[in-house]
Write a structure and sequence with these properties.
Keywords: DNA-binding. With 194 residues, the protein is mainly α. Helices cover 73% and strands 0% of the residues.
Length: 194
């Protein structure tokens, strides 16, 4: 077992939990006041009353801090599509769930776009971490149910592509697209899914 796995299994110390909460509150306030570009590790550490080393040990870098800020909203979103009410959650036909999922994902992406942009562009494969894997598995399962015989894995990637933060930011900020246009485009694609 490696050190990361051992550390993940240990419960968080109360002082570490307090520091984490202070850091995330300070970082959230800085993002609200200055935007993501104003998120400097030294400023976050000073606002939280912790050392910069503590911040780097805990989050690694700005993208790690961005992921931590994204985490609460992401957990809420995943709970909604895994166990929430239909049509986003279980209990609706698969096609309806795919549509509801994609519409909710567009809203979720728009809500934290700058943080997602920072997090997803930190490394070449940063986008394809935990949340993407969960989305892909969820969509693949629903597509398989809705269209047996379809290449569910490919279709899941194709449906997730427009919500990649760099493309979403480019289309909505520079291309003038609205979230309604993106969801409407998804609706057109899904109408062709047989």
């Amino acid at each position: 077992m490696n050190a990361v796995t051992q550390r993940e299994q240990r419960p968080e110390r109360p002082d570490a939990a307090r520091n984490r909460a202070k850091i995330l509150a300070a970082a959230g306030e800085i993002v609200r006041a200055r935007g993501v570009d104003g998120l400097a590790m030294a400023d976050v550490a000073a606002a939280a009353g912790v050392g910069v080393g503590t911040l780097y040990r805990r989050f690694g870098d700005r993208s790690g801090l961005a992921y931590a800020l994204i985490d609460g909203r992401e957990r809420h979103f995943q709970a909604a599509f895994l166990e929430g009410p239909p049509p986003l959650g279980p209990g609706a036909p698969a096609r309806d769930r795919v549509r509801a999922f994609l519409h909710a994902l567009v809203d979720r992406t728009a809500e934290q776009l700058d943080l997602l942009l920072m997090a997803e562009t930190a490394t070449p494969s940063a986008r394809f971490g935990g949340a993407y894997a969960a989305y892909h598995a969820h969509l693949s399962m629903l597509i398989t149910e809705a269209a047996p015989g379809a290449d569910a894995g490919f279709l899941a990637d194709a449906l997730l592509a427009p919500t990649a933060a760099p493309l979403f930011a480019h289309r909505t900020r520079e291309g003038g697209w609205t979230t309604e246009r993106v969801t409407s485009g998804f609706d057109e694609l899904l109408d062709g899914l047989r």
